Amino acid sequence: MRSPKERRSVVTGIGVIAPNGVSTESFWKATVEGVSVLDRVTRDGCEHLPLKVAGEVRGFDPADLIEERYLVQTDRFTHFAMAAANLALDDARLGRADYADSPFAVGVVTAAGSGGGEFGQRELQRLWGQGSRYVGPYQSIAWFYAASTGQISIRGGFKGPCGVVASDEAGGLDALAHACRTIRRGTDAVVVGAAEAPLAPYSVVCQLGYEDLSSLDDPVRAYRPFTRDACGFVPAEGGAMLVVEEAAAAESRGATPRAVLLGHAATFTGASRWEESRAGLAHAIRGALEDAQCAPEEIDVVFADALGVPSADRAEALALADALGRHADRVPVTAPKTGTGRAYCGAPVLDLAAAVLAMENGVVPPTPNVVDVCHDLDVVTGRARPAELRTALVLSRGLMGSNAAMVLRQGPTPPS
């Protein structure tokens, strides 16, 4: 076995289920064209709630990708994760034949912020409306944060290290870092990512306590980070799953490395302490750069957290200046999530997927609905910008105070 330092983690497969596309191809097409799909909330039971605008996944039929026996025991957030995992495995060309003799060589890691709210709400309504005999047995597992990890593992026959990361929205990047550490310890491949379904009535009511949630009813104006019109964020459902493999193992089976996950760091600064998040996020960026052995000037694009709260946006801009120095004024910054909403733990994984695709296509996608940027950042707005992209920085912060940064580089893997 190669030493831990020699075991590099490469992305070989991407699967996306998002408001702007229920495949990686459709997601990227909408992302690079700067299409905004934010719209009025249409989910049943949400009509009279204060949340008016969100990013809903439409045109998604889980039965097209998942067997009925799995559908009946899982929530919508797990449907998204399982479907995205299917797409990622297909993209990586990783099938059962590749690990039939070594099922313990493949693990699963997901991140989750809200769990199965829709399933849980339905079963609790049956409990109080009809009685305990009307509550299905899967209520005990479908709501749980680890449900997606468990079901992907069971369905795929993956018996390697499995886990779930519950570390706020930044958990999407933390899950990827967890996968990289698992690979360094000897696992050959990890199916990793996050998907959320926070738009059931119960889930929406739980979010109404977030002061940073946008309450505007105009989809064009509801989520505009880095502008004077910033008034909070818009939530979304969906997410992405990736296949991350040890570079030599991927090469041995003929897989193509699409990107190398070079470095990660995470910090914690406390719930809604956005001024303090400047130092915490800057520390995470420096840590990720150090882990990646990457200089600030090597960063070719930043996928920003872009919360849409003035104090948080200011802190992020200053954190980039603190960590990247003079390069912060020159590096293009983008936040495609302004066109889809923030899918909580799924948001940074979608950003990382977009970063891989951006590097492959040599173009920085725009930041939909954002004009008149009021911070010292080169935010890409309007239309996509052609650029030579080799190294990307992805940022994420959570409402409860987590900060994370990840550095990735275009594949194939560089020499050790």
From TrEMBL:
The keyword GTP-binding does not apply. The keyword Cell inner membrane does not apply. It comes from the Bacteria. It holds the Pfam family ketoacyl-synt. One of its GO terms (biological process) is fatty acid biosynthetic process. Residues 6-410 form the Ketosynthase family 3 (KS3) domain. SMART domains: PKS_KS (SM00825). One of its GO terms (molecular function) is 3-oxoacyl-[acyl-carrier-protein] synthase activity. Coiled coil: none annotated. Keywords: Acyltransferase, Transferase. Belongs to the thiolase-like superfamily. Beta-ketoacyl-ACP synthases family. This is Polyketide beta-ketoacyl synthase.
